[in-house]
Automatic annotation (TrEMBL):
Domain annotation Core: ranges: 1-104
Family: Belongs to the HesB/IscA family.
SUPFAM superfamilies according to UniProt: HesB-like domain
GO MF terms held by the record: 2 iron, 2 sulfur cluster binding
PANTHER family hit by this protein: IRON-SULFUR CLUSTER ASSEMBLY PROTEIN, PROTEIN SUFA
Organism of derivation: Thiolapillus brandeum
GO cellular component, one term: cytosol
The organism's place on the tree of life at top rank: Bacteria
Protein name per the record: Iron-sulfur cluster assembly accessory protein
Any GO BP annotation: iron-sulfur cluster assembly
Length: 108
């Protein structure tokens, strides 16, 4: 399994984690949602469950549940910031076969 962060994403995540006392890393996952099947889930990880896998990339711990692993294998997570109103994570996922028109969900 391979999940990568760009340097921009890693820097942003480290800043976010520094504001959270209990966070040990970033939790990445998927959930059934939207018109094409799945949506990404991003949250602080305050612990590791028995069905989680932990990756470390660019000094950031990434916690991923086992069900999401096949959907996220090969993912590159980036963070873009054109201005204060237009910033956020970008998911470059080689497994995605289709996305919905609004870009909120994907299918593999």
């Amino acid at each position: 399994m391979n999940i990568q962060l760009t340097e921009n994403a890693a820097q942003h995540i480290r800043k976010m984690l520094a504001t959270q006392d209990d966070a040990i890393g970033l939790r990445l996952g998927t959930k059934k949602s939207g018109c094409t099947g799945f949506a990404y889930v991003v949250d602080y990880a305050d612990g590791v469950n028995e069905h989680d896998r932990v990756f470390e990339n660019r000094g950031v711990k990434l916690v991923v549940d086992e069900e999401s692993l096949p959907l996220l294998d090969g993912l590159e997570l980036d963070f873009t910031s054109n201005n204060l109103l237009n910033q956020g994570f970008e998911f470059h996922n080689p497994n995605v076969k289709d996305t919905c028109g609004c870009g909120e969900s994907f299918n593999v």
